[in-house]
Amino acid sequence: MELKIIIDQFFRLINFTNPYIYEALGDGLEESEIKYMEQSINFDFPEDLHTLYSIKNGLQHADFERLEQTLLFQNGLFLTLEDSIKEYEYLIFDFKLRKKLPIFDSGGGDFLLFDCDKKSSTYNTIVYYSPALLITTPQSIYDSMETLFSTNIRCFIDGVYKYDDTMSLEIAPKRLASLSKKMNPNSSFWEEYERYL
């Protein structure tokens, strides 16, 4: 299925389950705006990244009472492209993180990074970086942008995720690990995460 359709489906689902966080998401950027910001960090964004930010541009304001109210999924605080580039400028000092753009944040220093390095074995996938968990060499967590969104759509449909009465995200970790491992067979993170639970 076309990536744009899957991302649109995900955000429609968010609008249905939590209109409050949906309203806090920025409208998509024009292609010229994405290109302009792309030039500021001196590497090309893969097409999937252009697609994502042309649909929505991250969480625009943070007047939420709890971190869990800002999450679209586990580790899913959606960064604006501007904030993504700012975070990248801090991370770039670690050679292992070069050309890996943070697109989602845990809110506590962990990131989901989109690998933009054409020479990388994880190019065009989502990798996880967590100094707190000693994952300082990014580890594959979603096989592609498409599986990131399709996995998290399935998590909402199957009740792995739900928003409670305060609009905080609740997660069933064991079911998340099982489903995500199945939908991302090329990503090593979920098997290790499942063993940890």
From TrEMBL:
<dbReference type="InterPro" id="IPR018958">
    <property type="entry name" value="Knr4/Smi1-like_dom"/>
</dbReference>
<feature type="domain" description="Knr4/Smi1-like">
    <location>
        <begin position="28"/>
        <end position="151"/>
    </location>
</feature>
<dbReference type="Pfam" id="PF09346">
    <property type="entry name" value="SMI1_KNR4"/>
</dbReference>
<protein>
    <recommendedName>
        <fullName>Knr4/Smi1-like domain-containing protein</fullName>
    </recommendedName>
</protein>
<dbReference type="InterPro" id="IPR037883">
    <property type="entry name" value="Knr4/Smi1-like_sf"/>
</dbReference>
